[in-house]
Design goal:
The protein has 18 helices and 14 strands. It is α/β, with parallel strands linked by helices. It has three domains: about 180 residues, 3-Layer(aba) Sandwich (Rossmann fold); about 180 residues, Rossmann fold (3-Layer(aba) Sandwich); about 110 residues. The strands form two sheets. It has an eight-stranded mixed β-sheet, with helices on both faces. Helix 7 packs across helix 12 and helix 10 crosses helix 13. The longest helix is centred in the C-terminal third of the chain and has 106 residues. The protein starts with 7 loop residues before the first strand and ends in a 6-residue tail after the last helix.
Length: about 550
Amino acid sequence: MSPSERLHIALVSTEYPPAYGGGIGTFVSVVTRALAARGHRVTVVTPGETDAEETGEGGVRVVRAACLARPAPTDSAHTLESWWAWSERAAQVVREIGADVAEFPDYRAEAAALLARRTAGEGPAVVVRLHTPLGVLAACNAARARHRALEALEAEAILAADGVISSSTALTQRVREMVPELGMVEFARYGVDPALFDVPSRESGGADVVYVGRLEERKGVAVLTRAAGEFLARSPSSVLHLVGGDTPWGPGEPSTRRVVEGLIDPAVRARVRFHGALPPEQVRAVVQAAAVCVFPSLFEAGPYTCLEAMALGRAVVGTDSGGMAEMIEDGVTGRLCRAGDAADLARAVGELLEAGPERLAQMGAAGRERVRERYSAAAAAEETEAAYRRILAGRAAAAARPEPTLAALLAARPENEAALRAVFAERDRLAAGWEEQSRRIAELDAHVTRIWAELQAVADERTRWYEEAQRLARAWEALSAELRETSLRAASLNEKLLATQADRAALIDRVSRLERAVSEAEKRPVFKILARAGLVRPIAAAARGGGGA
């Protein structure tokens, strides 16, 4: 393939606008447009609700592939199932589009299925880009449970790729510590969105400090909030703004924000403000209003948030652990402090706040120019293309080399016959073992499929039970309501019955009194006179309610 030949490049990522996620999504958005501007066919493969295609900015083809993977809980088994489901779907799409190069991120081992299913020399050259694999993240998020199986899957994908690219020498070193067998690693830095250079740089006019990034232990937010008491005390007009979504701190603590809020000095608590996740345009406005932007990560490959703040002309404070030590020129574009050291971070931020607007503007201008020269999208695309071409050339050279035979090696090195025969015997044994392992993997895949079908059936049955329970609950509620209504009616009728019984008792008492009165009257002399006159019966009858004249 000639250096001028147009490439078909596929970039696979679960993060892509509008679902940026983090730095990976930003990188894919920037580098794909820049590669397309260099004349290459560029396709992005990313998850979607349904299968769909669109033409994105800069002529980039976007394939959104539906994936039926369920949302992954925090346990390794379910997360691995979710990762693998997307990896297989992405592999299917990449095979269908027929790219020359397919780049995958290290995180989530998105290349694993394509690498596992292909034969030697088949399909596109598979490139894994190092952003920060889970093993490196886990070492800095000490409060979280580690998922060794997921870390191992990422490491296997890195080792099996045709080529590996890193944007940071510090990151390459960290990954080598995690994966000692790692071979050649190409270098191609990140690039920022060219639109940032169209935004006029301006003085902030204030003294606020801004942090942009997820609330996560690795990002150094606990160190930042511990340091805030000192640097805010040195600058009474300053406010610390934290912009970014909350994440779990660790088992039993779902909120990093809750942890770090407890570390803030009460004397400055009113001047520390959490904004949560904001849309990109609002983040940009907050950054432009800042006097200093701070990125206190325990380790970071090369945060886009820092590059973007520099591109917007802000003085920055970063740490010496990771890619920021390569991005920030200490004392020129900002300050570097020791990672994890709250006192050193407070010193660095405090010094910048006391430096004055003119000095901060000089640092911001120097940072903006450094990003323009070293981290432009065009430079990132040029370095990425060069890395792709070296990887393609190496793959072609390896494919062109004939596999040495035992006879040829014996003819060249007869003195090493025993060792060579042992090596070839071991190779044959390993090949046979690989075939057996492949057969077992296929059996396990089938077993997993059966188990998944059974679990699905159980889930469906559970859903039916739940629906039946809901129906019974509604019926019980209706019967309870009817019973309450009947009880109310019975109580009302009982009250009426008691009233009727009281009326009846009163009537009986009245009749009794009348009867006694009549009886007393019969004993009187006048009664006898009336009896003789024939008037007794009508009067007695009238007294008893029986009528009369």
